[in-house]
Structures are given as structure tokens and as C-alpha cells.
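In response to the reviewer comment on reproducibility (Comment 2.3), we provide here a single inverse folding case reported in full, input and output, so that an independent group could reproduce the run without further information from us. The C-alpha cells appear first.
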């Protein structure tokens, strides 16, 4: 389904079909973290951008009451098939997160795997946070996973192999190559993905996609959360539950908490105050792969 000019990374075709090849088997690195948080508050939870149900299906199978939302009909179709095979039938909604409207509220709304960063436009990011808050019960909690692409800064404009896997159905090799250009001034990253299928040593399929990702720093994101009415913002580094409290706010409506946590630790290579002002160029027809040698 096309979504006009709204931010929506294209998880259709090969990207949907191959998604489950990339992340191995349970337990996933973030699985226990969200499960613990969901159990803590009980009630019904909502996973934003649930995709093929990597987390959603194990959670529902294990007795958690979790619904899912995703923009991609194909990812949701795969999720439904997998759920059926697991003997569960989760409630799934096909919606954009920035226009979320499931008609009910939840104890926990969570958005794993840094999928919030798909919303490159700031107005859409705020709209999504508003929608998440609107879908929380009083005392409910929002969990958002975020990362800063520190390591990509050093490989500006270079193609590299990101993932490779064997497709069990036919033994084909499926590869994703990635080329990124990070604009540290605007906190935007352009990502070109080249998806390839090899059968019998010959490339039988290739396609190119372009995405834009926005990253946030923790205090900036805390202010955004507070701006839309969240309070008691906590930051988790990695998936260990050793939350540091950021500046708690007074006087904002007690409609929920925002918790942000970095999805995987990456070494910071830019110091605070570094202002490189890189601008992301307009997407070329075929991405140039030059080395900026920062
Ligand atoms: C990296 S996958 C994450 C899937 C799943 N949460 C997981 O952890 O495996 C990102 C998902 O976001 C969905 N998506 C992209 N843009 C979206 C949007 N604007 N609103 C809702 N979902 C979106 C894609 O269809 C895709 O399934």
C-alpha cells in the first residue's frame, strides 16, 4: 500500500520475504527486556511496527496480551501465517504509526528495533508520539528503542555487506549491501540498500531501495517526550534494566512514561560540540560509492 509522501520504509517484496532470514532464532537480544516491562504493567500492549512478528508472536504464544501495528500488508501477512503455525491469532492493524488509531488504549506501547527512526520528518515524529500517548491508559508506558549510527560515520558513502543468509525454501543466497551517508548536522542518514539473490552462483535478482533515518540524542528525545506530555523519562543503555533517570518533570499530565533505550552499544566517535555540518546530497540515480575518509 502506498502512503503518499508519509514516511514509510518499503518492507514489501523481497524485503518482506527475506526479513525473517536475518535475525536468527529465539531468544532475541531484546525479547526479555520488553517482555519484562509488559508483564510489569500487565493489561494489553501494542507493538508499533511489529513486522513479521519476531517479538509479537513469541509474546502472544507465551500468554502476553499484545496487539500489533504495521504499515506493510506483506509483513502483516507473513506475521499472520507464522502466528497460525504457532497456534495463536494476534490482533493486527495495518496503519502508519504517525496516524495510529486502533480505537482503544493500552498499558504499554512499545516500538522495538529502532523503528521510530523511520520517521525522518520531525512533524511526523511528533505526530507519532502524540498518537502513542493518546493510545496509553493513565499510568501506561511507552518504550522506544533508539540508536545513533556512530559507526556509520566512518564509512560514509561506502558499499558494504550488511547481511547474508540462505533461503531455506530453495537454498538461494540472499544478500543485503548497504551504503550510508550521515548528515551529522541534520541528524539524518540516507541509506541505500541493494538486495540480491544468488542461485547456483549466479545473481538472479537485484533491487535497490533508499531509506532515510533520523537519529536523536537522549536529552533531545527526552525533551520531545516531555513536550507531548510524557513524564518520568528513563534511559536504558542496551537491554539491561539499569535505568538512569533523566530530569523528571513536574506538572505535566500523568498520562504515562517514556522510556528510551539504545538498542546496541556503539562507541561514540564524535565528541559533543563537533559540528561537521554535512549535508545529505539528493539521491543520485545510482549511489556514488566514494570514500570520504573522515
Ligand atoms: C525493522 S522492521 C521491525 C519489525 C519488528 N518490530 C521487529 O522487531 O522485528 C520495521 C517495520 O516497520 C514498518 N514500518 C515502516 N514504516 C512504517 C510506518 N510509517 N508506520 C508503521 N510501520 C512502519 C515496516 O513495514 C517494518 O515491518
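Designed residues, in position order:
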Amino acid at each position: 500500500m502506498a502512503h503518499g509522501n508519509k514516511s514509510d520504509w518499503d518492507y514489501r517484496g523481497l524485503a518482506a520475504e527475506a526479513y525473517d532470514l536475518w535475525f536468527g532464532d529465539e531468544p532475541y537480544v531484546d525479547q526479555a527486556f520488553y517482555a519484562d516491562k509488559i508483564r510489569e504493567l500487565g493489561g494489553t500492549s501494542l507493538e508499533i511496527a511489529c513486522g513479521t512478528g519476531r517479538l509479537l508472536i513469541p509474546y502472544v504464544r507465551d500468554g502476553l496480551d499484545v496487539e500489533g501495528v504495521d504499515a506493510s500488508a506483506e509483513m502483516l501477512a507473513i506475521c499472520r501465517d507464522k502466528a497460525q503455525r504457532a497456534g495463536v491469532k494476534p490482533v493486527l492493524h495495518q496503519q502508519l504509526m504517525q496516524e495510529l488509531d486502533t480505537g482503544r488504549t493500552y498499558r504499554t506501547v512499545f516500538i522495538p528495533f529502532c523503528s521510530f527512526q523511520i520517521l525522518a520528518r520531525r512533524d511526523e515524529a511528533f505526530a507519532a508520539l502524540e498518537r502513542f500517548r493518546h493510545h496509553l491508559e493513565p499510568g501506561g508506558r511507552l518504550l522506544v528503542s533508539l540508536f545513533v549510527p556512530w559507526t556509520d560515520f566512518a564509512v560514509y558513502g561506502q558499499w558494504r555487506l550488511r547481511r547474508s543468509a540462505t533461503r531455506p525454501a530453495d537454498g538461494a543466497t540472499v544478500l543485503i549491501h548497504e551504503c550510508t551517508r550521515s548528515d551529522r548536522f541534520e541528524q539524518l542518514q540516507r541509506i541505500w540498500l541493494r538486495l540480491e539473490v544468488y542461485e547456483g552462483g549466479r545473481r538472479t535478482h537485484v533491487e535497490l531501495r533508499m531509506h532515510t533515518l533520523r537519529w536523536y540524542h537522549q536529552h533531545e528525545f527526552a525533551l520531545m517526550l516531555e513536550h507531548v506530555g510524557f513524564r518520568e523519562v528513563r534511559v536504558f543503555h542496551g537491554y539491561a534494566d539499569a535505568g538512569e533517570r533523566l530530569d523528571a518533570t513536574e506538572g505535566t499530565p500523568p498520562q504515562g512514561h517514556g522510556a528510551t533505550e539504545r538498542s546496541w552499544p556503539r562507541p561514540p566517535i564524535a565528541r559533543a560540540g563537533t559540528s561537521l555540518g554535512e549535508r545529505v546530497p539528493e539521491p543520485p540515480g545510482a549511489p556514488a560509492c566514494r570514500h570520504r575518509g573522515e
